[in-house]
Amino acid sequence: MAYWLIKSEPNVWSWDQQIKKGATGEAWTGVRNHTAKQNLEAMKKGDKAFFYHSNEGKEIVGIAEVIREAYPDASDKTGKFVCVDVRAKEPLPRPVTLAEIKEDAKLKAMALVKYSRLSVQPVTAAEWEHICKLGGMKK
DNA sequence: GCCAACGTTGGC
DNA sequence: GCCAACGTTGGC
């Protein structure tokens, strides 16, 4: 089981929209960056990912689950990039903001802080658990 | 194959 | 709206 963080601008694709998709999930398309692409390809069915709102909010709002592994992104005409399907798993009782992450000694080394432009990034197990705790998750 | 110019992302 | 970071493009 691996952990990830996926970013979306809420005015393009928000957590609320993701929730409405329910168990069917939604294709996570639009990645046009090779580092992010490699991360997408490394995702396995059942992996969990934090859902982060960039620009507006700048906070982790929920937990998504990978339900389909990497396949060609239909929205990419060049055929080079891939997407995965994700579904909303559960919202965080309390969103964890970027400001909090930056202030937290355990989290300030996160890719989210260091490589702010990367839209799909790995999260370590320690980071995952800590953010869950901050977000008010029971476990 | 190097590197400058340019475009995009995203925080502030 | 500005700017820093970084990826991509194109001339040589």
UniProtKB/TrEMBL annotation:
InterPro entries: 5hmC_binding, EVE_domain, PUA-like_sf, THYN1-like_EVE. Residues 2-134 form the EVE domain. CDD domains: EVE. Gene3D superfamilies: ph1033 like domains. This is EVE domain protein. It comes from Variibacter gotjawalensis.
